[in-house]
Amino acid sequence: MRNSSRGAVDAFIVMDVMEAARAAEAAGRHIVHMEVGQPSSPAPAQARAVLAETMKTDPLGYTVALGLPALRARIARLYGEWYDVDLDPARVVVTPGSSGGFILAFTALFDAGDRVVAGRPGYPSYRQILKALNLEPVEVQASAENGYQLVPEDLAGLDYQGLMMASPANPTGTMLDRAQLGAMIGACQEAGAAFLSDEIYHGIEYDQRAVTALELSDDVCVINSFSKYFSMTGWRVGWLVVPEAQIRQVERLAQNFFICPPHAAQVAALAALDAREELDANLAVYKRNRALMLEGLPKAGFDRIAPPDGAFYVYADVSHLTSDSHAFAAEILDKAGVAVTPGLDFDPDRGKGTLRFSYAQGTAEIEEGLDRLRRFMAARG
């Protein structure tokens, strides 16, 4: 059986690190997980209770392709609560996680061969999904001076049909303020390109509120998910907000690609939207963990970091410690029992000298991980 060239995408390195950590745990070791953006908290109790009750009487079959109308309406209302944006629920599309949203958005907006810009470092699946769809990822190195976020000058002279931005970003946690985001939307639209805003980490912010692209323009595509702030990674439910002109196109694609998002996950997601007290308690844990990381990582020797404005990651320059972040991460796992992600996932060039540390776990685990890292680096000399 032959393989397609479209399927020849790179492995997602963090998943390989997770597997190595799992194997170590299976062998009896205790591993501190700083490799993956996996909240330690479960889906909100209210969401789980509502789903359990629903399952007693509802067969949970197919829903319409765009998602449960009640969920779409509640997501639209969220934009009023968080951003003072009056959003038409018809523009909301419920998806099988943000990954399903990327597939729908890229397929609806671009033709084969179109060029889509994304910054480096950045979420690696942008690149791989684009490749698999016969689209051309155009990755542009963002500078540390700009918080590893692209600025309009970075787009000068580029030929592109789309631009993907994330704020807060993965792997850095840095954010764009209103003026910065507006400048990027303006530069993109001036070039006649589609602007896509990955807002999956909205809700996990510390000193300032994240800005949604919808505050600045209706002619944008927003991707979001219940995975991070709502602690529902494995439920595989997210959403798109698309311009009115794209609704029917996205609907036809969703009908054929996915039929519908998982019904059970949609029921839980609807209830999760009203679980603010529990979710904000989770945010308080991330805030405490962030403070511990910003204090503890430099003490351990990881002192070249981009302080995160949001999300739950710290991106560290370790080029003074290694020229092979993959081998360095493996050494840390083996000798310290801490799983971290090599930066190669996020930047195949500069990533040889970077690591990403996640602080999404419980505070006790973060404290233990930092202590292990400190002792590891002291022994390493």
Describe the 3D structure:
By secondary structure, the protein is an alpha/beta fold. The chain folds into two domains: 13-43 and 277-380, 3-Layer(aba) Sandwich (Aspartate Aminotransferase, domain 2); 61-274, Aspartate Aminotransferase, domain 2 (3-Layer(aba) Sandwich). 39% of the residues lie in helices and 14% in strands. The chain is built from eleven helices and 13 strands. It has a seven-stranded mixed sheet, sandwiched between helices. A four-stranded antiparallel sheet has the order 9-10-13-12. Strands 1-11 form a two-stranded parallel ribbon. Helix 2 (45-54) packs across helix 8 (263-272) and helix 3 packs parallel to helix 8 (263-272). The longest helix has 25 residues, at 276-300. The mean pLDDT is 96.
Main β-sheet, spatial strand arrangement: 2-8-7-6-5-3-4
**The named CATH superfamily of the largest domain:** Type I PLP-dependent aspartate aminotransferase-like (Major domain)
Order of helices and strands: HEHHEHEHEEHEEEHHHEEHEEEH
Output the structural class: alpha/beta
How helical, in percent, are the residues? 25-40%
User: Helical stretch count?
Assistant: 11
The CATH class designation of the largest domain is: Alpha Beta
Q: Give the total of beta strands.
A: 13
Low-confidence stretches: none
- Give the biggest beta sheet: 7 strands, mixed
The average pLDDT score comes to 96
Q: Note the overall shape.
A: globular
CATH topology of the largest domain: Aspartate Aminotransferase, domain 2
Quote the beta fraction.
5-15%
